[in-house]
Structures are given as C-alpha cells and as structure tokens.
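Notes from hallway chat w/ T.B., transcribed later so I don't forget. T.B. wanted the structure written out for a chain they're using in a teaching module, and asked if we could keep both sequence and structure tokens in one place. Agreed to drop them here.
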Amino acid sequence: MDRLKAGATWLRADFHLHTNADKEFKHDKTEKPGVFAKKYVERLEEEGIGVGVVTNHNKLDYEEFKAIQSRGKKEGILLLPGIELSVKDGARGIHCLIAFNDNWFSQGHNYVEGFLNAAFEGIPNRENENTRCKLNMGELLTKLEEYCTQERDSFIVLAHIEDSSGFYKELEGGRVKEFAENPLFRKFVLGMQKVRTRDKIQNLKQWFKEAKCPLPAFVEGSDCKCLEEVGNAHRQNGKDKKTYIKLGAPSFEAVKFALANHEIRVKPDESPEPSHAHLESISFVGGKLDGQTIYFNADLNCLIGTPGAGKSSILETVRYILDLEFGDNAMDTKYKEDVVSNLMGSGGKGIAKITGRKRQRYTIERTLGELPRILNDLGDEVQMAISEGIISGLYFGQKDLSNINDKFNQSFLDKFIGSALKEVQERISKQAEKVSDIIGQIDELHKVEEEAEALRLKEGQLSEKIRLFDKYDIKKKLGRQEGFEADVDHIGMMEEKSEKEFKKFKSAIENFSSSLEKLLDHKSKENKKDFGEAEKLIRQIQSYLEEVEKRTGQMEKEELAGLKRIREELSTRYNDEKEAFAEVRRAVNVDGELKADDYLKYKRELKATEQKLESLDGQLKQKEKLQKQLSKALKRLRALHKEEAEKYTEAIKMINEEGAGVSVQFTAHGDKEEFAQALEWFFQRTNIRKEYFRNIAEAYKDTIAIYEALYDPESSLADILSGGSHLLNFQNRFEERKAELLTYKSPHHFELLYQGRPIQKYSVGERASALILFTLTMGDNDLIVIDQPEDDLNSQSIYQEVVETLLKSKHKTQFIFATHNPNIPVLGDCEQILCCQYFDDKLQFTAGGIDSRDNQQNIIRIMEGGPEAFQKRTEIYAGWRRGE
C-alpha cells in the first residue's frame, strides 16, 4: 500500500461490513461479482475506509470476498475475511465478528467453511442473522484456539454490544467478569463494536478491572444492509462515530497488533494528523543511495543495522541536508562531515520534501559542498532560514549528549528555548553594534583632539612670527599682493565646490529616478485601473526629473565655464602684477632680520591652519553629544540584557513545570567564575593579579557597571585594585578595549537538576539519561535527530524513562534515531524502521512499521542476536518468572 510507504499511518477502519452475499443485504443478487466489487470499493473510498472486515451472517462467500479484496488492494484498501457468528449465550445469542488470517484458506482449502459446517451441524437456515450456532462463547474460544495451534489465527470483535444479541445486552455483570477471566477471551476478543452509553462503559471498566483483564478496544462498523450504507458512520449526539487504527503493514497481523495495543494504535472519531512540521522524504542523486528515496514518518523513525551498515551515514546526511547545527558539545565533527561526503559522493545531491509548520510544502535541495536551496510548493526559490521558517530541529551525534560538561551547558539549553530568545538576542546584537559604533566615533574624536592641539600650537607660532613683521608695517606694504592671492584662491574654491555639488545633485536625481522605476515592478491583478493611474503619475515625476537633470546639465556647463573664466582672468592679472609685487618685496626686506616672502608664506599657512581648526572644532562639538548617546545606548543594552534574563526565567519556569524529573536552576549574570576568566583574558599582560579579577567579578554584575565606576576614587573598583599602577593599568586597558568590554555580556549561571540533585553528582550514564529525557520532553522543536541515544544508558533507564517519554512526545515531535537497542523501536512502537546494510558498495535499506513481519524478523536477527538467541532468552526469562 502506497499510503504506508512512510511506515505506520492512521487509517479509518470498519469492522462490521456486509456484502451482497449476505441474505440481509438489499441488492441485485444476480449482479456479477466483478461489477459489485467495483461499486463496493468505490463506496469504501467515498467514506475514506482504509481497513475493513467483511462479516456476513454465518457465511463467507470466498469468491465474492476475493473479488472485493483484490479490487480494494488496487485502491490501497486492506480487507480481511470474516463472519458474523451468533453464539448461543444469552436469551437471543451473542453476535461475534470473527476475522481470519490467510492460513484459513491455504492450499485450496476453505477452513472457515469447515468451521461453519461444524458449528451449525443439524441447524437449518444458518444464514439468517439471528440463527445461533451450536457453540457457546467458551466453546467458540476453545475451537479458535485449536485452529490457532495449526497457525490459523483469528480475532473477535463483539458486535453492537449494547443492542439485542450484543455482549452487554445479553449478559449480567457476573457473566461478563467470568468471560473476562478466561485467558482465551483475553487472547481472542480484541474489540467491542458500537459502545455508546457512559454508565455502561463505566460498568465494563469496573468488571474488567475486577477480572484483571484489559478492556478491549472500542471500535466502529457500519453494519451495512445495502450498498448506500457501506462505510456509513453511525451518529451519536449529532456526531459521526468513527474508528482510526495505526497500521504499518497491510496484513491481518498488523490489524491484530493495533487492536492489541489499542491505547496507542486505536483512536476514535478523527484521524490524528500531525500538527508539527516534519520531514517527509529524502531522495538522492549520486552517491551510495543514488536513485533511492527514504520516506520518514511524522512520529518515530529508527535506523537499525549491524555496525557499519550505514545508519550513522544516513542520519548525518539528514543533518547536513537540513542544515542542522552540530552544537558546541559535538564530537568528531570532521569525521561526521567525511561520512556525509562518502555517502553523497562528489556532486551528489539530496532532495528533502518537508511539510512545514503551517502545512505548507517545501523542497530543500542540497548538493555536497553547497548551501541548501529552498523551493516552495509553487517551485519558486525562497530566501529563508530552514530552522526558522520551515522546520526546527535538534541534532545530537554519537556521545554528544554524554559529552555535556558537568556544569550545565547554556548552548544545550538554548537549543530548546532558543526560539523564545532569538528576537531579544538579535536586538542585543544590534544594540551592541550601536554601542561599538558610538565608541568608534568617540575614538576618532580622540585623534581629532590631538590634531587640533597640534594645530593650535602651530597657530600660535605663526601668529607670533607675523607679529614681528607688523612693527615694520610690512602688512600694509604687501597688502595688495596678499589680497590678490586671497581672491585667486577663493575663486578657485568656488569653482571646485560648485563642481562637487553639481555632481552630488545629479547623482541624487539619478537615484530618485531609479527608485521610482523599481516601484513600477509590481503588477496588480485585482486593481489594474488604480495602478494604471499610479504608474502614470510616477512617469510624470520621472519626466520632470529628466527635465531638471537636463537643465542642471546646461547650468553646470555654463556656470562652471563662467567661474573658470573669472579664475583664469584673475590669474592672468595676478601674473601680470608679479614683477611689481617682487619689487615691493625687495624694497621692504629688512637686512638680516625679515624677508617679505616669509611674511606671505606665514600668512598663507596661518589661514590654512585657522580653516582646519574651524573644521576640527565643529567635529569636537560632537563629542559631548556622543558621550550622551553612549550613556543612553549602554542603558538600553543593559535593559535588553535584563529582558533576556526574564525570557530565560519564563522559559525555564515552563520547563520546570513539565515535571519530567529534570529541572533547571537559573541565576541571571550569576556565573562569576566565567566572568572572572573573561576579565583576566581582556586584561592579560597588565600585571594585575588573578584574585583581583575574581573580586571584581563578585563586586560587579557586568562590564557596564565597572565602566561607571572606572574613574570614581571612592568605588569598590579603586579599593580592589588598591589605586596606583594597578588602577591606572586597568583604566588604560579598559579605554583601549572599551568597545569589546562594554559589549561583552556577563554570563548567566545554569545548573541542571535531575530528580532534585545537581547533574554533576551523577555518573556519566545517569547524566546522559537525564539529558536524553530533557531532550525528548522539552522545547518546541519539530524534529529531533539522535545517533544512538542509548549510549551510556542502562536498559532500565531506556524503558522506564526514554521509551515512556517517547510514547508521550512523538505525536508532537518527529524523532529520527540510529539505534542498536531493541527497546527503542519495539517498546517505543516505532512507526518507521529502516533496516540498513551495505552491499556491493551501495547502501540499501528496507522500510516499514514495527507491525511489519519482515521488520520484526530484522529486529530479532540484528538486535536480539537471531531467533535462537531470542528464543533462548525468552525461555530463561520464563524460567525465572516461574521461580518467583
């Protein structure tokens, strides 16, 4: 069945079907079996039936059944042969729906017919719905057991138990308990159909509890009397009553397995569709899985196989294609990357199909050595993070969980509550960048201050030199040349500045026009008229800009040409006057003291210095403003740190309320040891002793608080560093690395408690157990991938904690495990098992649910040491139980 390609799937089941072969069924009895089978299966399809049991009254028309079964198989519907048998208990008899396995029809024999002939020997009209057979319930069970010893298995569903000829209706409580105490009843009776009334359900629970017998599954069946009723759900209080069973193989054994495990494999009313995002499949192009597709179940997936069979290779490739992070505690990452390269091969590609969180479908393509490529359900490439917009996942390789430090690792916790923190942490990062930027601007102003100081010194020296010339009245004598030179310089500045501003203006017009053009990319389907008018207006603006640009070009050409002409005329006149100026300078030279050329040179230098100082003073006015901005930015950064701590507190509170035996202790900015080590690293080679850093870390919450006390002589910082050179060295280094220090976030303290005790007080195996338990129960991740979660765990921990937690969690999280421990797939009721093996340098696998006969044999062969070892252990354990 194609619908089972991803392992166990929820299918609607009808355990009480009648066909045209039934005497009570209203239909043309002369219709050919093939025509009827087609109509019948079409009705099953219309009603969404995936599993059905054909149970005609005291009769099985095998030829008709085979026609219907064959037709159903083509449409992915599993149909089992059965009968509705009336046994002679109670006043009207009790109707039992009996389903048979294929061995009842082996080697051309129809053992069901032989069974019916014996049960109705001497009784006429057996096909009437209320004709009772010779057997009572106890005798029926004994007879079925005899057939079972011949490998002809069966199970019973008690029909319409609250109606006439129903198990509850016909029997008193004492008789019900008597039957429930019969081991054969427990073995064969796996279901009760059409259970309705609350007080009767409570009675059944009480009677079966007193008999120490598990209550059979409550199931539904249409009990159809015509074609139109096939698959019809009965109604109660205005709601359809339906049954869904989880099936991993299209077989009698799988249906029986589901009924026997009905607490987790049978659901009423609605199919429990997965609400979380999940990986559907990965197809491979190239490499050792070339041309193959691996299908994954939305719940539990287990990769099994002998050592070296390729389990880890597949799991690591899943990690690679979905771009799942290794994590800080990951081991042997180089080896794991090599495993992926070996499986995918050069140029190999994996194509993952994913159902996203909002039921959207995505395809992720990743070629070895390249980034993932994401396509939506329309085939369009989208730019988004896989973990944020499509499917969130956690990955742990072999031994990664047991490699967590004794002190609980924050990065481990962040994997589970990271989504709650991501937004505030992004704001912290942006605010830290802002702080760094402001500090960078302030640092640049320090250089400006130094430059301005040097210019002021130069200004004073030049002014003094020029003052000496004044006593000879040289300024007046050379004033004409000085003025002429100033005019030539200024007209040159006017020309240069105008040219630059024209360029800036033209560039702004081009950018404006380009931005408007991009706005026209949108094509409206719903409001074409309105957008047509809007486009017209944009085109008018662009036309105006083109006109402005054209006029600006003309103006630039004309005005710059005019400025150039004036500058050239002035320069010409200046050159004409040069000899006259030179005569004046020769006349005013003071022998041995002052030269006129020096006066002009000093005046030029002084003017340039004054202009530069004016520009630098304008920049220095920003320093006070920047200091205020820094103070405000640091206050905002500290507020964000507080908000993050509150997010941690809130998320950890929710974790602790889960009550899974694992809790987290949290202290905001409480990891003083790591804070001291960070300070020691920042201030290395400053000759400040280690104990000083430990004392500073204890005294201050963060580096911002240290900065606020940096120049306060009355502060704890000054006391700790004892003033003098230590304090000066500390201040100097802090100024040197101010941006790094003020954006450093002092670490929080986390401690994992397992059953109320710190995790470091446990053994490695116990710690691993706690961390796996934490992993399986916490967070809102859609997918968890773990390679050999049983490493470092004992079997008791796996069963009592890991498996029980899996059963509770897998409906809301997809799990993919590579494992050697049979407890995980078997007791975890694994939906999809991938049995891996290497053959001729190709990785091969078989897939199916735990209820697949082939997979059951694979588990016994690979995980239990083979049938002989499995049987031997079973016998030994049974002997131990007998000795209790």
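Follow-up for T.B.: The longest helix spans residues 596-657. Might be a good example for the class.
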